[in-house]
Design brief:
Blueprint: H1 5-17, E1 29-33, E2 36-39, E3 44-47, H2 50-53, H3 62-74, H4 87-98, E4 102-106, H5 109-128, E5 136-140, H6 149-153, H7 158-161, E6 171-174, H8 179-185, E7 190-195, H9 211-221, E8 225-229, E9 253-256, E10 268-272, H10 274-277, H11 293-308, H12 311-329, E11 334-340, E12 343-348, H13 356-364, E13 367-368, E14 370-372, E15 376-379, H14 387-401
Helix pairs in contact: 3-11, 4-11, 12-14
Bound molecules: pyridoxal-5'-phosphate.
Length: about 400
């Protein structure tokens, strides 16, 4: 699609002053409401990325906006040198939905992952009795847990790692979904197994049924912490509150981010029982903005929207419908359609090129979707999407995939 003059002006300015670490589609968004975004040319698009599932509640949800503005007028930041009157309610809410006893609030997903890593290591030394500096953490091939130096150090994606070493040692990498490899990788020094219940950035990779339950059981038998990175899969995205709910597994540690604030604010959290969280003492971990009253007020409201509108159920029902309709297209370009709830990956056959041109065609027709891992179109609209809006999208997806 031809780039409009106004769009060009904005993009040129960003490219002139910004680092070149992203390759966005040629759209400059200036406004959004619900599932719809509007660009600087006055065009309207259906958002099928939902900011990588950070806006499961839809853009600028009024029931998050109002308390956010109210809180902003009163108190935004105290630092953790003092208490604030909003954090407790937020922690309590996260405890309720995770059924965990303790929550540690941070800001970004990667920080929450770092928090979980620090917690698992310290737990290994203080509770499990692993000798100093010997703790190991098992992770999966094709993982995505964020962009800090420690986290990219155990990525298997060359572009994420190249040029950023040396890396933090003692991460072991096993094939995703391989419980045998998990068993044989565990030893007396293993602190934790950390994984994504569905690999989002990795291409919406759904592990075989039973993987979550079996790997949980293996970890339990071996006194290894089972850490679920639910940053992208959490808060209803997969048709359950958390993706681990699909196999009735309660991880030892939940890592949450993205939709926990409905897109209003960087907010993340780690939840665990006291038996694990107790390893942190004053001064041993922290964040200037973590647990601030504005983030807390927003987090409370964002979780309430998920609960009050039963978005996990909506995601389940509409996700099934959407996926079945996609399968019916019977596209010659498509190798596989997979996913859970409104978290759907459409894998393009290698011989048909990459997913990018398909995303560009969808864009021309008014749908925002972003390719992930070259071959996969990810469809993950806000969970408030209606059936009519899904049908609107399907009409256009049919044209592009037929
Ligand atoms: C997005 C994401 C992260 C990183 O979150 P940031 O807020 O970008 O730091 C970590 N893990 C998973 C599974 C994610 O999807």
């Amino acid at each position: 699609m031809k780039i409009g003059d106004i769009t060009k002006k904005y993009i040129e300015k960003s490219e002139k002053h910004g680092a070149n670490n992203y390759h966005p589609l040629d759209i400059v968004i200036k406004k959004a409401e619900g599932v719809w975004v509007y660009d600087v040319e006055g065009r309207k698009f259906l958002d099928c990325l939902a900011s990588y599932s950070a806006v499961n509640q839809g853009h600028v949800h009024p029931e998050i906006l109002a308390p956010a503005i109210e809180q902003m007028k009163i108190l935004t930041l105290t630092s953790r040198a003092f208490h604030n009157d909003r954090m407790g309610d937020f922690l309590e809410k996260v405890c309720t939905i995770t059924k965990k006893e303790k929550v540690l609030p941070m800001n970004t997903g990667a920080e929450a992952v770092e928090t979980a890593i620090k917690m698992a290591r310290k737990w290994a030394y203080k509770i499990k009795g692993v000798p100093r500096d010997k703790a190991e953490i098992i992770v999966c091939e094709n993982n995505f847990h964020g962009r800090t130096t420690t986290i990219v150090g155990f990525s298997t994606e060359e572009a994420y790692r190249d040029g950023f070493g040396p890396f933090t040692p003692n991460f072991k990498i096993i094939p995703y979904g391989d419980t045998e490899a998990l068993k044989t990788s565990i030893n007396a020094n293993t602190a934790a197994f950390m994984f994504e219940p569905i690999q989002g950035e990795g291409g919406v990779i759904v592990p075989r049924d039973g993987f979550i339950r079996e790997s949980y059981d293996i970890c339990k038998r071996n006194n290894v912490l089972f850490i679920a990175d639910e940053i992208q899969t959490g808060f209803g995205r997969t048709g359950r509150m958390f993706c681990c709910d699909w196999e009735n597994v309660e991880p030892d540690v939940y890592i949450m981010g993205k939709a926990i604030s409905g897109g209003f604010y960087p907010l993340s959290a780690v939840a665990a029982d006291h038996s694990v969280m107790q390893v942190f003492n004053p001064g041993e971990h922290g964040s200037t903005f973590g647990g601030n009253p504005l983030a807390s007020a927003i987090g409370i409201a964002a979780i309430d929207v998920i609960l009050n509108y039963d978005l996990p159920r909506r995601s389940f029902e509409l996700g099934n419908y959407f996926k079945n309709e996609l399968i019916k297209i019977n596209s010659p370009y498509v190798k596989e359609i997979r996913g859970k709830g409104l978290f759907v990956g459409v894998e393009i056959k290698q011989e048909c090129g990459t997913a990018r041109p398909f995303c560009e065609k969808l864009f021309e027709k008014g749908i925002l979707a972003k390719e992930t891992h070259h071959q996969v179109i990810r469809f993950a609209p806000p969970l408030i999407i209606t059936k009519e809006e899904i049908d609107w999208a399907l009409d256009r997806i049919r044209e592009v995939l037929s």
